[in-house]
């Protein structure tokens, strides 16, 4: 990806660590922007055995949206 902020670099290293721990599984970390927490904007970083292309990253995020929606509505 295009990490430029020190927080992005820290999060990218953490994503890489988790990915290694999970034998190269794709890992995506999303942190919502929060002025009080000194997070200037929503930040997304990723790591995997091979660099994730944009469509791969979006696929992981879309799968997460679908899974969380399913989990939410099955409890009703």
The end-to-end span amounts to 38 Å
Categorize the overall geometry: globular
Order of H and E elements: HEEH
User: Strand-residue fraction?
Assistant: 5-15%
Mean pLDDT: 90
Number of strands: 2
Largest sheet: 2 strands, antiparallel
Classify the helix fraction into a percent range. Answer: 40-55%
Tell me the radius of gyration.
14 Å
Assembly type of the chains comes to: single chain
Sequence of strands across the biggest β-sheet: 1-2
Runs with pLDDT <50, length 5+?
none
Task: Kindly name the structural category.
Answer: alpha+beta
Number of helices: 2
Write the layout of secondary structure elements.
Layout lengths: L5 H16 L5 E5 L11 E5 L6 H21 L2
Antiparallel strand pairs: 1-2
Task: Summarize the entry for a quick read.
The protein is α+β, with helices and mostly antiparallel strands. Helices cover 49% and strands 13% of the residues.
Describe the structure.
With 76 residues, the protein is of the alpha+beta class. Helix content is 49%, strand content 13%. The chain has helices at 6-21, 54-74; strands at residues 27-31, 43-47. The chain has a two-stranded antiparallel sheet. It is globular.
Q: Which features does this protein show?
A:
single chain; 76 residues; alpha+beta; two-stranded antiparallel sheet; 49% helix
């Amino acid at each position: 990806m295009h990490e430029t902020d020190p927080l992005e670099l820290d999060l990218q290293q953490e994503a890489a660590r988790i990915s290694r721990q999970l034998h190269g599984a794709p890992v995506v970390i999303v942190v919502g922007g929060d002025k009080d927490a000194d997070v200037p904007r929503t930040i997304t970083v990723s790591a995997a055995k091979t660099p994730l292309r944009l469509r791969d990253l979006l696929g992981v995020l879309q799968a997460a949206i679908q899974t969380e929606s399913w989990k939410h509505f099955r409890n009703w």
